[in-house]
Structure formats: C-alpha cells, structure tokens
Amino acid sequence: MSSRFFSSLRFLQHENPLGLPRSGAPPELPRRMRGLPEKRNIRNVGKVIAVSSAKGGVGKSTIAGRSAILLRTSRSIDGDPVNLALAFSRQGRRAGILDTDIFGPSIPTLLNLSGEPRLSENNQLIPLTNYGVKAMSMGFLVNEDAPVVWRGLMVMKALQQLLHDVDWGGLDVLVLDLPPGTGDTQLTITQQIKLDGTVIVSTPQDIALKDAVKGVAMFRKVDVPILGMIQNMSVFTCPQCNHSTHIFGSEGVLRECSKHSIDFLGDIPLHASICDDADRGKPTVVSEPASPRGQAFVKIADTVGRKIGL
Residue 4 and which of 20, 30, 63, 158 are 20 to 30 A apart at CA? Predict the structure, then answer.
C-alpha cells in the first residue's frame, strides 16, 4: 500500500511539470517566465527607430545622423525646395540620436560635438545638442583617443545607462545608431526597448548584402518591424565628365528587398563631399540641403516619418 502511494505521488509530480499541452505545441508563456525582460518605452520619447547594417563601413552612422536631423523637420509636404525649407524651419520635430556603439562611437564627429554631458537634477545624463538635434554617445564619456577595452558585462552596463539614464527632455523621435553585427547590443535593445521599426543600410555588393540579410532575419526573429532598406554608395558621377558609374553594383539592395518582401527606401549616391561633410561635422543636409544627395536624404526621412506616424 505504501509503495503504491509513493509511486502515484511521483507520477503526479513528474508527469507534466511544465504544464505542456497534450498536442505538443509549446505554451504561450509571458516574456518574464521565458527569461526575457519586459519591453519598455524610453522615457519622454515618442517614437524610436533603429538604423542598422550588420556590416561595418557601409555608411549607417552617416545616414543615422542625417535621418535624425531630417526627422526633426520632415513632414509629408509636397512642393519645391522652398516649401521643404519652410517646413524644416517652422514645423520641426523634436529629434535625438543615440549612439549605441560602445567601442567605436562616431556620432560626436558626425555632429561636431565634444565635451562631457552634465547631470540633471535626477542624476541623469543631459544630451549635447547641435543643428537642433540632441545626441548621446559613449564618445562623450571617454577620451577621444582612449580605447574602450571592456568585457561584455561592462559593455551591457554602459548600454543600459545610455538607454535608460538619459534625460531627453521630451522627443518626438529618437534614432538609435546600432553597431555592426547581430550580437549582444542588438539583442539587448530589441528585447528591452519598444522599437517602432528599423531601417537597414547596405551598399549594393554581395559581401555587404550577406550581412544585411542576416540583420533582416534577426529583426524578424525578435518581432521588430522593418521599415525598409537604403542602398548607400549606389552610383558615382564624375565631377569632370558627368559620367555615372555603379562602382559597387547597381541593384543589389533592390534585389534583396524584392526577395524578402521589404520596402526599398531609396538610393544615396557616392560623393566625395559626403565624406568631407562627415569629417568636418557638418552633415550634407545642413551644408548642401539642395544638392541631389541632400534631397535624397530628405526623401528617405520623409518616407520613414510617414511609416512611423510622425
């Protein structure tokens, strides 16, 4: 009798300890029960988008910086450049950019910003501002020439502070400039922050597109909406003879957009002044807003703004 009792007790305790359904399908457990943090909004920020490439050197940060500037001012306005300029000055959005690349921050250079951020009354970092855009970066917190030689735990702690300990003071939109790859930083952001979407940047050649497609798969796996892809360095026009050459190919990003059912947001040409503008910290849409490359940024920012409901 005693033996049968303990045998029955063991059966009741171990028959289905996780409460799995009989069909074999996994249960829909809350995020916390699956060991995942609850996604939350960034305080005092309306919309949050991520700009990613999964590949270094394709111009993601350059586009992210200009997107923040344009999203500050861009609305769905038809008409000539005069109307766009009036819209930029009179109907501005409050925009910010967060550089989440702990090891290689580039936003300070792109926006010509330097200095250590002050602390608010709530002991939060106060962003630096230029061209009407608020910015926060690891580059403001360490010496410009000092390498960040940290292990993963320290990196994640710094990222947490950048995500949650910055006093943005009220923004309509915040652009997150993600580092290359699909690792800890990307997972932390996509699992902890409520993102309104992501923009993926790539150059047209296959070596860059292979990594960009991995980024597409990652964002879909973590249920982040993909707003579209940008093809950077798409064409070079010789300033001497005006002949156009597709140095890195012409339709690589278009092909992947069609293959993966992603919207194509537009082309950014390869031009020496974009590099010069970046090095001197004066973005193209500030230094040459009426140029074809400046207008390309304007068009893309306007499209992204409509997609996220700005």
Answer: 20
CA pair distance 97, 89, nearest whole angstrom: 19
Check if the beta carbon of residue 31 is closer than 8 Å to that of residue 177: no
**H/E run at residue 198:** strand 197-202
pLDDT for 125: 93
pTM for this prediction? 0.76
Instruction: With CA atoms as reference, report the closest residue to 234 among 252, 216, 218.
Output: 252
CA distance linking residue 61 with residue 229, whole number of Å: 14
3-state secondary structure of 281: coil
Please give the C-alpha separations between residue 224 and each of 36, 81, 187, 210, 272, in angstroms, as whole numbers.
15, 34, 11, 20, 34
Calpha distance 160→165 (Å, rounded): 8
Which residues are paired to 237 by β-bridges?
244
Cβ neighbours of residue 59 under 8 Å, at least 6 residues apart? Answer: 53, 201, 203, 232, 233, 268
Cite the DSSP H helix spans in the chain. Answer: 2-14, 60-73, 81-90, 107-110, 152-164, 184-192, 206-221, 252-260, 272-279, 284-287, 292-307
Q: Is 21 exposed, middle or buried (0-12, 13-18, 19+ CB in 10 A)?
A: exposed
Pair of tokens at residue 226: 């993909």
Question: For the segment 64-80, what is each residue's pLDDT rounded down to a tens digit?
Answer: 554 555 444 333 322 22
DSSP symbol at 125: B
Question: Measured in Å, how far apart are the chain's first and last C-alpha atoms?
Answer: 72
